[in-house]
Amino acid sequence: MKMTRVLVPALAPLALAVSGVASAGPSGYAPPPPPPEKQEFIVRVGGSYVSPRQDQVTFTDERLDFFDIRSFRGNIDPDEEWGWFVNFEWKATDHWGVELNYTDGGTHSGGRARRALEFLLPGVTIGNLAEFEPEITTLMMKWYPLDPSCLIQPYAGFGINYTDFGSEKFKGWRRSALREAGFRSRLNMGYSWGYAAQFGVDFNFGHDSSWLVNAAAIYTQSQSDVRFELIEIEPVAVPLDDRIVEAFSGDYMYDPWIFNLGVGYKFSF
């Protein structure tokens, strides 16, 4: 009994020391804490296939001449076009990122408006009425569901888009026909704000590689006011606004699907 009373106090510090060494790593030191999640930046660039919506648009006479109101329905069906895209993403955590994307949608042409201008050009069928060049910018929050060690990284995103419709004009042969009738034309489509959503996937070349292949499908909600004017060429001395013969406007739902295929590069600071 006396031996027990002596050994217990003597062995207690030794037991604590042994348990501390056992909980430490092989070198006898405590293991380091896990590293923080790495912030990455990704740049992607490639080609875009832009497929806009076909829409029936009612064009109304803006002059509101109640004795001679002219309104008509036009079918705006722009062709699908190839363009290009570039985007920059800040991946703040392993599963969340913020992406800014720019898409040049190429030059769309299309539109049919039978009987639209028969009062000026009798018997002429209007097809492929106009052309325009959309520029689409999106800002999205993206979610990556898989572990960052996976070489295939699918994602989903949601955010907003700004679409600017530039270089809008009537087709060249249509402008020539109007000039022969003594008129010129002016077409405006403006810009649009709306929501955007996307689904995509990154294919990484390897765990230690910074390069990847990207494929994505993006939908953007976009509506634009289409306005065109018919203006008398002569007399030139008269102010332009006073020579407007007709002015029509209508709302067009552009709403394109954009399919991207490109390459990307990852880096961090």
From TrEMBL:
Signal peptide: 1-24
GO biological-process terms attached to the record: transmembrane transport
Gene3D superfamilies, sorted: 2.40.160.20
Keyword Signal applies: yes
Entries under SUPFAM superfamilies matching the protein: OMPA-like
Keywords assigned by UniProt, alphabetized: Signal
Listed name of the protein: Outer membrane protein
